[in-house]
Amino acid sequence: MVEEEPKIQAIEGVTSPTIVGLCLGGAVFVLCMAALTCFCYRQRRNHNAKRHGPDQPLAFHTHRRPTAVKSPAGATTHYLKKSPSPTGPSKTPPGMSAPHTPSPTGSSSGSMAGPLESGVSNGNDKLDHSATMKDVYTTENEVHTPTKEEIETNEKNLQQNASYLGQLVFKLRYKHDKNALIVSVVRCRDLPAKDPNLGSSDPYVKLQLLPDKQHKVKTRVLRKTRNPVYDEDFTFYGINFNQLPNITLHFVVLSFDRYSRDDIIGEVFCALNTVDVTQIENQQMALCREIQPRSLKIRSQGRGELLVSLCWQPAANRLTVVVLKARNLPKMDVTGLADPYVKIYLLYNGQRIAKKKTHVKKRTLSPVFNESFVFDIPAGGEGLENVSLEFLLLDWDRVTKNEVIGRLEMGGAKCTGTALHHWNEVCNSARRQIADWHKLRE
Q1: Which residues make Cβ contacts (< 8 Å) with residue 105, sequence separation at least 6?
Q2: Measuring CA to CA, how many Å separate 95 from each of 73, 82, 177, 191, 255?
Q3: Between 346 and 120, where is the model more confident?
Q4: Separation of alpha carbons 313 and 318, rounded Å
Q5: CA distances from 139 to 92, 97, 243 (A)
Q6: Residues 413, 386: contact at Cβ < 8 Å?
Q7: What is the pTM of this model?
Q8: Quick one: residue 114, left, alpha or beta (phi over 0 = left, psi -120 to 50 = alpha)?
Q9: Could you tell me if 340 and 394 are in contact, meaning their C-beta atoms sit under 8 angstroms apart?
Q10: pLDDT at 58
Q11: Helix (H) or strand (E) holding 62
């Protein structure tokens, strides 16, 4: 038998419009999926760009929470701290907080007023106190323009007597149960302007008890004011009531300078034997003293004399200087004495190239030093032709800067009188030790 082959029959019912519809539906589905994928990709890319930034690679970016900057306000101190160098990092004067730094988180702090006001007690001078605190808040970065009132005050100040340096107001009280003397530095009035551009000063007050010089304290610095209000109490323990007549209060008023030595405005001496100490047992006694310049005592007493010996050794190219002694020095302390020492500078072509100094001789107006120093003269010079010496006799002081009593120059264009005669004799008499007395000048 012959097998029958299967018959192939056409599918019925599938027309061309149906096929076209299926193709269109598939195309629309593919387009929708592509649009959805593109939208998701763009959203993810924008999210990553916001988190990492446009210029940073995603794989190496680290995530850190922002750290808030702490408030610069802190505990104040009564002790003066100066910056070691004008080119170094700036520091804040005592009694002031650093300028306020805004936090990166956007928060601001107003805590600067607390520490500044903590050192000031409530007194009778509330208006002056508020004006002073405004001066304290002024920072260095701000440009201060003098007002018309300040300019008129400056002109009046310049017209006043140059010797007038203002007044110091302070209070005294003694407590028997604690054997303590309490000195309150209240305020200063009409201080001179040490900064002529601003017409003001940055004053503070140092205090020590004489004659021992053991108790030394200081107030905070108040910025840009000629009438500072301090209201600061200083308590000195271990002082018997019978010792009060032998004590003298020594106030020194200074103006703070960040980049150099502080300017000395003047000083006030208050001997307690001139005060009725019985009144300070039960209540405070307010006193006012005019500030005196420190140079008046030198003008009235002279600057004294210095005995030095010189020896020129041309073979070794050395100059030996012996500081022997001094006499007739002015009284630099209320005790009638001084703490002198001598600085020696070697100058070559008018420039200081070497420095020596003697030891300090305590409480004497006729010190004996007997100290020898050897200076090497630079090679290439013709003897001592381009060489000169400068002697400075200073009064050592632990609280304030060491004050120059007098100076002596030997050699150079400014050398005259006995100094010139002595110098010529040393140059012409090699290997001989020649000594002579010389008057110190300003």
Answers
A1: 66, 68
A2: 11, 12, 31, 19, 14
A3: 346
A4: 5
A5: 9, 10, 44
A6: no
A7: 0.40
A8: alpha
A9: yes
A10: 43
A11: none
**pLDDT above 50: residue 163:** yes
* Residues whose CB is less than 8 angstroms from the CB of residue 132 and which lie 6 or more positions away in sequence, other chains included: 222, 225, 227, 228, 229
Q: Can you tell me the distance from the alpha carbon of 40 to that of 300, in angstroms, rounded to the nearest whole number?
A: 95
* Pair 239, 179: CB distance under 8 Å: yes
Q: Which residues contact 50 (CB under 8 A, 6 or more apart)?
A: none
Instruction: Label residues 321-358 b or e (16+ Cβ within 10 Å = b).
Output: bbbbebeebbebbbeebbbbbbbbbbbeeeeeeeebeb
For 91, phi and psi rounded to 5 degrees? -120, 160
Q: Which of 173, 175, 206, 176 is nearest to 188 (CA)?
A: 206
CB 266 within 8 A of CB 294: yes
Residue 6's pLDDT is 57
SS3 (DSSP) at 395: strand
Distance CA 136, CA 118 (A): 13
C-beta neighbour count of 309 within 10 angstroms: 16
Backbone phi, psi, residue 306, to 5° = -130, 135
Q: What percent of the chain has pLDDT over 90?
A: 26
Distance separating alpha carbons of residues 371 and 421, to the nearest angstrom: 23
Q: Max Cα separation, the chain?
A: 162
Secondary structure of residue 324 in the 3-state scheme: strand
Q: In terms of DSSP H, where are the helices of 53-138?
A: 113-118, 126-137
Radius of gyration, CA atoms only, the chain: 40
pLDDT tens string 70-110: 433 344 444 344 434 333 444 444 444 444 434 333 433 33
Q: From 180, 170, 187, select the one nearest 286 (Cα to Cα).
A: 170
Could you tell me the two tokens for 3?
Answer: 């097998």
Q: Token pair for residue 217?
A: 């304290």
pLDDT in tens, 388-414: 999 999 998 876 678 888 999 998 888
Mind listing the pLDDT tens digit for each residue in 351-385? 999 999 999 999 899 999 999 999 998 887 677 88
Tokens 């004294």, residue? Answer: 304
Mean of the pLDDT values across residues 187-195? 87
d(C-alpha 183, C-alpha 234), whole Å: 5
Type of residue at 397: D
Q: Which residues pair with 349 in a beta bridge?
A: none
If you write DSSP's letter for every residue of 385-437 in order, what string do you get? TTEEEEEEEEE--SSSPPEEEEEEEESSTT--HHHHHHHHHHHHSTT--EEEE
Burial class from Cβ neighbours inside 10 Å (0-12, 13-18, 19+) for residue 118 reads exposed
Number of neighbours of residue 247 by Cβ within 10 angstroms: 20
